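queue> holo job accepted (1-O-alpha-D-glucopyranosyl-D-fructose)
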Amino acid sequence: MTSFRNKVIYQIYPKSFQDSDGDGVGDLRGILERLDYLQELGVSYLWLTPVFSSPQNDNGYDVEDYCAIDPRFGTMADMEALIRESSQRGMGVMLDMVFNHTSTAHPWFQRALAGEKEYENYYIFKEGDSKHPPTNWQSKFGGTSWEYVPSLGKWYLHLFDVTQADLNWDNPKVREELKKVICFWKEKGIQGFRFDVVNLISKPAIFEDDLEGDGRRFYSDGPHVHEYIKELVRDTNIAEMVTVGEMSSTHLEDCIRYSTANPQERELSMCFSFHHLKVDYKNGDKWSLMEPDRRMLKKIFEDWQLGMEQGNGWNALFWCNHDQPRIISRLGNEGRFWKESAKMLAAAIHLMRGTPYIYQGEEIGMTNPHYQNISQYQDVESLNYYRILLEQGKTEAEAMSVLAARSRDNSRTPMQWSAEENGGFTKGTPWIEMADNYPEIYVEKQIADPDSVYSFYKKLIKLRKEKMVISEGRIVFLERDNPDILAYQRCYEEEKLVAFYNLTDAETTVLLEAPWMNYRKLLGNYEDSQQSGRELGLRPYEVVVLEK
Ligand code: TEU
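queue> job finished
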């Protein structure tokens, strides 16, 4: 049940991983070609973002048929081969269940539009006049979260794109339909599930304006969310599988419940929360730039690590995914200390309490692409906000610099495999432009190099499998008032680790406690160590991990 604690999960964004047929879009056969690479890296599960039949307005998070593969990605036979071949290599495939909403192209929504009352009740339709949306709630992608349907005289709720209509989980028929989807994929041999924005599924009984915000406080960790997740897990019998919920604007107390190890209260294996990735949002606004607040970052790690440990919950540990800019470009250094910062940031989360996730390309230190032109961006959210930023009075250059830091496309550039044209991703034209540094940063170059970022990730994955202190140990934070150094101790019975991370590009020192003087160095990102007596010197972005 807790077998995921010593494993590492690898996230694949299929559209940008490997193209096998030259159409510029990655596909399932492309993933098949790269399974040996993933096995060699040592990861245990492959989470694929949605490959279901979809109009692709939100790159597959707008699902039209949960039980069919989109032809852009391949066929059901390809998916079956992927499940089989991954399993032969000791890896399980996890699929991404987008159950908060469907595409408006989904037959359920189409039947609702055609006037079938039964299907109208699959979604959240509200009466109202065409001029006034039912509430002032905002879509996560900008603008109102309601769309008016003249033929019905009603509005429907879409927390994301206008083509992503929110499902009505209060309707038991909807819950039954979604359980069938889980069972369908379980029978195919899927080993785990990621649930997209699953803490948004339960909407309040009364819909009212949010006078303090954009509406999220009414539906994030909503009234029946725990009940609905428990029911879904119980009725599909997936309690023993690896499951992770993506929790948007969530609370610690709820995440403890979502991921509790208590079998009577079983919901999911673990949670993604995002508070640690908002420490560079000015006033909490993703579209206002600010230098990262490291004090806040450390405080969030402390609260969530200790809180989840005390509450017997479990964190998903991650810096990167398909919605986040690359971490090196954000908290690390793309220039002189590229390699050091990539390794330091990797160790910082891989040695914490939780299950680490690697997002494709993170293991070779991929960076943001530095797009210069708005035509290079593809993402619906980026294009919406570009327009909104201009409407707010920003210049084009200002809006472009915000996108360069914040766009989801920063992580969606193709995987950099080799020195070939397009990094070996495709023989055609990539659907989205490569990052500018693809001729320098690529897999082939790093595989053979024991000092590479790739080799360091491989070591971290191996260490987690070998050492109970990493997978099971308690955590205690050190250097708590020092904004520049993240430091913690892990303890499991007699095993002990102490880890120091210089989060900055300036040299600094820490004072070792007497017992640590006899510890041996387990891991680092500089060849030698700078220790004299009790003083340990830390160079830019240096990590030092000592073991008893
Ligand atoms: O993301 C949910 C989500 O709220 C964010 O990460 C979102 O991208 C961000 O708040 C916008 O600023 C999930 C998926 O990971 C994402 O790709 C989908 O677009 C979204 O749900 C809708 O399904």
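queue> The chain has a mean pLDDT of 97.
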